[in-house]
Amino acid sequence: MRPPVQSPEGLLLAGVWALLLDMALVFLAVVWIADGFAPPQDLPWKPLRLADPPGLATQAKFERAKLNPSACRAVLAQGGVRFGEAAPRTDGACAQLNAVRLEGGVTPLAPAGPVMTCPQALAYAFWDRHTLRPAAREVLGAAPVEVGHYGTYACRKVAGRDGLSEHAFANALDVASVRLADGRRVSVLKDFNADGEAGAFWRRARTGACRWFHVTLSPDYNAAHRDHLHLDSGRYRVCR
């Protein structure tokens, strides 16, 4: 007895399914090989870890973690960053929500323990680990032991504008200086535009911050930032 003859449409459909099956098998093989041999920072399905050097998938995983309060805290905790929860507060249009107080595991801030949103704390931790510390060691020859700042939360508008600043939501940090293990102190005001190692350090710190913070403003932006780096995790993206 002869086997039934398939129609052209049936042959085409069978070919499509065979092709899709082959593609699926190839994809699974690639994933299996990558999972075993590629570094975790290059794989989007691997957890984000503060200890891993930045890789191909780091930025996407980092931005996802910032949007998820529990994931944000999990990445901080897994990376050895100690923090306490900050109580929510509102002051008119200003609000402090999803906020933490950094307590250890990062270069200490002075004044100590400022309250900031978890996304901002995560950005600070990654900037500290992957930009600030390497820049200080490689350019200045000493580890940073303290980061001086002008605050995180202030219910105010952007200078010269009507809109609220990210400081109004504890979502910004103004970095003014860094104290080094050998006792030296370098400041944005004195050193950012200077020749030599201190200026090179600050410019590298500013450029590296642009990877982790959505907005990074330096003395290159305007005179209002002549003495600090404004770092925030707001909705806009600016790197100056």
Please, what is the average pLDDT? 91
Largest sheet: 7 strands, mixed
- Indicate the overall shape: elongated
Order of H and E elements: HHHEEEEEEHEEEHHEEE
Count of DSSP H/I helices:
6
| Count of strand segments | 12
Written description of the protein model:
With 240 residues, the protein is α+β, with helices and mostly antiparallel strands. The protein has a domain at 82-239: Muramoyl-pentapeptide Carboxypeptidase, domain 2. It is built from six helices and twelve strands. It has helices spanning 8-37, 58-67, 69-78, 118-140, 188-191, 197-212, and strands spanning 82-85, 89-91, 94-96, 99-104, 109-110, 115-117, 144-149, 172-180, 185-187, 215-217, 229-232, 238-239. Strands 5, 7, 8, 9, 10, 11 and 12 form a seven-stranded mixed β-sheet that branches. Strands 1-4-6 form a three-stranded antiparallel β-sheet. Helix 4 (118-140) packs antiparallel against helix 6 (197-212). Mean pLDDT is 91; it is low at 25-32.
What key attributes describe this structure?
Muramoyl-pentapeptide Carboxypeptidase, domain 2, alpha+beta, 12 strands, seven-stranded mixed β-sheet, 240 residues, three-stranded antiparallel β-sheet, 6 helices, elongated
